[in-house]
Hints:
By secondary structure, the protein is mainly beta. It has one helix at about 1-20, and strands at about 20-40, 45, 45-60, 65-80, 85-100, 105-120, 125, 130-145, 150-160, 170-185.
Amino acid sequence: MKLKLITVLTAILITATVSAQSVNIGIKGGLNLYTISGDNDGSNEYKPSFHIGLLGHIHLADNFALQPELVFSGQGAKYGDDQKLDLNYVNVPLLFQYMFDNGFRLQAGPQVGFLVSADADGTDVKDNLKGTDVGLGIGASYVNPTSNFGFDARYNHGLTNINEDDNIDSFNRGFQLGVFYLFKHKN
């Protein structure tokens, strides 16, 4: 399953890059507010963390672009009085964007996350969780064409159960607020 998904994403990226009008590379980072939703979601709260990574911005047409990213993302949830679940993922979103002429963009697309580590109050719980998470991201961004800086806001909705125990449903859900910089940005 992982190999098929990675192969499809790679094929899309190669095809888009070959036919693209222009390609930009950038860096990004910002705030995460994640929780775990599912069977035990009544007691979970949002846990603040961060994300940092790389992005590509591939113009496909005047108003359409593809934005693949490679992002380290701190996720998880707070629960109980002082307890928290720290999940660290390397996420690979592939966002399709509609670009307005004024720098604003609407974006949506799939995201695959690879679990790097999982810690529940000092205990390694990575073996209790699946190594891959598939989700859907939707959001908006703005880039200032004169400075090449921008910001984005996104909601990520996990679609796959992250628990190894299929009797308990748990899904990653979270918001991201970030800034980015595009090197040698071309409109």
